[in-house]
Amino acid sequence: MSAESATVHVTDPQAARCGFRHCREPLPPPGPRGGRPYEFCPDRRWPGDKTCKQLAAAEHALRTALGDTDPPTALREATDTFAETARQVLEPLQTLGGALDDVTARMQDELNAAATRADEADAAAEEARRAEAEAEQRADEALRLRDEAVAEADRARADADAAQDTAQQATAAADAAALAQARAEATAEAAADRARTAEDQNRVVRARVDELTERLDELRGQLAERTGERDTAQAALDEHRARSRDLEQSLTERLTTATAQLDETRDALRQASQRERDAAQRAEELARRLDEALAAQQQADQDLSSVRGELADLRGEVERLRTRVAESDRERSATDGVLRRVHRAVLDAGDDPATLRELVLRELLSRDAPSGDVPPDGEGS
């Protein structure tokens, strides 16, 4: 019986599948020129660079050598073990690939988010530093304006004090002139009293008339002189009063101007104080924003630490998956070794079914035994 007689021929190309019982993949249709349909996969390769057709022929030869149309239980178990091992190896690899893709995506998202938060924190800190510098400049300008306003107020206060001193001096001079006038009036009244006394004495003592007349003339002369002095003093007093009024008016105007300047200076001081308070409030606001930026940066650092911890956990999981893959590779290598020994036994047995059965059974029985425990040829039969 040839290897081709053991295959299943399917007439429908659309439903044709590979003749190797462990493959059974759909076969491609014939070419555009027609021809014989495919019986086995034309391009698929198995471990050892074996095709489906070669493996089907080896399986058929083994079944023929064993004298059974169905594969023996040990061989069937070996092939099933190989298929299960291949599936177990493939599943962790697929799981590992999916996990690595998820980890990569999550790491990329977390790193992008952390970088974005770090950039925002840096921008906020830079804005806070710039605003703080502007606030300091404005505070310095406010202090300079306040110093200038204080100096201007001091100058205005000095001018007001000087004007007040001048007004006091003018008032003192006016008081002195009034006192002199009062004295002159008192002197005139005293002279009049003496004249009346002289007239009374003239009626009493005529002898003294001439003397009293002379005395009266003298007194009249003195009175005239005093009257002239009084008139002069009165004119001087009037002139002084006029000058005092002019000076008082000038001082009043200067005092009004100084008061206005002082009010303006006070307004400037109040405005400077208000600007200083506003600058202080802005500085406090900027300090608060800086604290918030620092808190955000600390939160970003904590998030980055958490991401690093998750990355370490994922690395541990990857290491465990790699260990499982290595164990699967070792199991697959052991299974491949058994299959290679079975295949080598099939090739070495030739056409002797008994020898083939003995070699195959010995290889299957020595699958898990050490190499030193394999029985010699002939003892197993």
From TrEMBL:
Domain of life (superkingdom): Bacteria
**Region ranges (Disordered):** 114-142, 150-169, 220-251
Q: Where is there biased composition of kind Basic and acidic residues? A: 126-142, 150-160, 226-248
What is this protein's record name? Chromosome segregation ATPase
